[in-house]
Target: Cell division protein FtsX
Amino acid sequence: MRAQFVLSEIGVGLRRNLTMTFAVIVSVALSLALFGGALLMREQVSTMKDYWYDKVNVSIFLCNKTDAASSPKCAKGAVTKQQREQITADLKKMDIVENVIHETAEEAFKHYKEQYGDTAIASVITPDQMQESIRVKLKDPEKYKVVATAFAGRDGIESVQDQRSILETLFNMMRSVNYAAVALMLLMLVIALMLIINTVRVSAFSRRRETGIMRLVGASSFYIQMPFIMEAAFSGLIGGAFACVLLVAGRYFLVDHGLNLAEQMPLVNFIGWDVVLAQLPLVIVIGLLMPSVAAFIALRKYLKV
Model:
């Protein structure tokens, strides 16, 4: 009987405040969708880092005849065979180095033509202008500075470059987008909480006569508050469900279909469906608990009979 009464009160409250309930659902859905999107963006950045950092190398560019005339670091002339062999030997002795590959100027020229053969500048580039290099695969890409410190400035070396720096711009941009999403999510969350509190206040005011009678006949505070809390929880649950739909639809239409980013950007290792689905229970739980707690706090102030 009590459960039937609570459910009937929930229905009455939702019908009386239908517009505000709808606003709460939309606000919760958008804020939780942004929350889930921020989580997925963080996972995407982490996945891309693990994927690309495992593939990038440290490149040690050696001096050639052109560099000897234009670069102060190559003032002593082009790299000699002895210098190149010594650099390679010293690299192989380092514990952090996994693999060392020497790329000649001719090989560098061939790779350049394969990638940029259609450009105007490619027609005037000659093999002797290309730099031979030593590609170093590290066991831990984070220890690039160890190699840079040990070899930068040595005779025959023009520069030491970490290919991770090329990716940092992309990762920084993705982090900025993630921060913007979090900021917008917090704004929407504040709006949703304000709407929940206002909805609870209006609902409590419109039913003050009923709650007063319940208090007089000995109903407990928890029993009186339960319909209001359940109304907020129901709205939050619906909003959380919509947020999950938005997240799944976003992954489906952006990556797999629609824009089909997975096919258009084959070099990007997108997060899988398992990562997306793993975030949905958290979104649902937050959607259920957040309005309930907000309603409980609001009732302590507005449900005074």
Summary: DSSP finds eleven helices and four strands in the chain. The CA atoms of residues 112 and 122 lie 8 Å apart. The two ends are 24 Å apart (CA to CA).
